[in-house]
Amino acid sequence: MGTFPSWLTLLAAVGAFASVFLAWRTLVANRENRHEDEVLLARLLTPRLVTSYPDDRIVVTVTLRNASHLPFHQIVIEGVTYGDTGCQQTESQRQHERAAHERMYLPAGKDFDSVWVVPDPNTPFDGQDTQVLFRYLDGNGRRWRRYTFTEPERIQPKPSSTDDKEHFNTAMRARKPDGSSVLDPRIWH
Fold it and tell me: DSSP strand E in the chain: where?
């Protein structure tokens, strides 16, 4: 049966193992909850696609709605498809969209519209599947990409490499006169 100290040692070992296991499960649960909270905010920029047929053309209007309490930033519609055909923007629509304040800052409860045209006039009007790919920055500064109604995908910034840093440092050391002073303003004239 064992002695009393042996039982205490066994009980302490089981308790230590249970404590480590519970700490590990808590860590995993916290990580999953944090990820879910991040994605939850990203899901709140929702697309709506409306297809219309003015003048025997197919026009797809993409409306992105901010259903969050925080703003979204730097919204870019990367592309729209109508069935197997990629849509295009007119030059005036592209210029308008680039200058649109809502693209850079979309407040809570507001919409951002983007208009796209099927370039081939021979494409049949048969209500084909319409898709959109867009990217954006959420209110917490995280960059996302989303394909129509799928789960948002986090875009991680490209890490800088040691070679990139060394190239930068070499260029900085090459400055004249010694890289630490301000240039004489007379040389700019």
Answer: 45-52, 59-66, 72-82, 85-86, 105-106, 111-117, 130-137, 143-147, 153-154
Task: Encode pLDDT of 162-185 as tens digits.
Answer: 888 888 888 877 776 655 555 565
What tokens does 76 get?
Answer: 């870019």
Tokens of 145: 């990409």
Give the model's confidence band at 187: pLDDT under 50 very low, under 70 low, under 90 confident, else very high. low
Please give the DSSP secondary-structure letter assigned to residue 158: P
Amino acid type, 54: P
Angle of CA points 51, 55, 58, to nearest 5°: 30
**CB of 60 closer than 8 Å to CB of 51:** yes
- Give exposure, 97-126, as e/b (b: 16+ Cβ within 10 Å): beeeebbeebeeeeebbbbbbbeeeebeee
Degrees, nearest 5: CA angle 72-74-75: 80
